[in-house]
Fold this sequence. Notes:
By secondary structure, the chain is α+β, with helices and mostly antiparallel strands. The protein has helices at residues 3-15, 28-41, 69-73, 89-107, 120-130, 143-147, 156-165, 170-173, 213-225, and strands at residues 58-61, 66-68, 78-82, 111-116, 136-138, 151-153, 180-182, 185-189, 195-200. The strands form 2 sheets. Strands 2-1-5-4-3-8-9 form a 7-stranded mixed sheet. A hairpin with a 4-residue loop joins strand 1 (58-61) and strand 2. Helix 1 (3-15) runs antiparallel to helix 4. The longest helix is centred in the middle third of the chain and has 19 residues, at 89-107. The chain is globular and about 55 Å long.
Amino acid sequence: MSLQDRLDAFRTNFEAGGPPYNAPASIHEPMHRATAELIASGAAGKALKLGDKAPAFTLKDADGAEVSSATLLARGPLVVTFYRGVWCPYCNMDLQAIQAALPELEARGAKLVAISPQTAPNSRRSQRENKLGFPILSDPGNAVAAAFGLRFTLPDYLSDLYKNTFKNDLAVVNGDPSWTLPMPARFVIGQDGTIVYAEVNPDYTRRPDPEELLPVLDRIAASAAA
């Protein structure tokens, strides 16, 4: 079963009020509306694309150590995945799928990092609960996400739903009062800093399969060997 098939099955169960969330039907309309508004805004079209230069970044991992994109790129191509946080089940399923593909990514010489706005303790929880073998970096205020063109502000009605219905106060989770998130995205950056793969979707329930990265990395390797 593909990643998207698993996400679709989860969404069907969630919207039917199934366990473990048993979510009330009233929550779905504002969530659908917010996604539709973000799509209609054209925000995804402003994100960095294939052929663009990726911004350099240095962020702290879950243990507080600084991780530099320049250092990682000196070792090989870099896969960067942006996700919303440990509270997002779609993000967790995405991270698990990337972890399953990690041996094949590393066999092709790639380095991998995940970036979210959440604080380090929440990143440690993400790594522990999803059994991840790659670093999660904290992006305070979504500054790096903004440099990639991914940051957006949640509408007030959705912030209210998250905080008061889901008890998910992003100001606390992220240590930042801005109530911003990144659109989920995946990039492959070549060693010269050029983006050679870009997938950005304003619908957080849609994620590219990590298998898509393998032919991209194979092409990089073939080009380097030529």
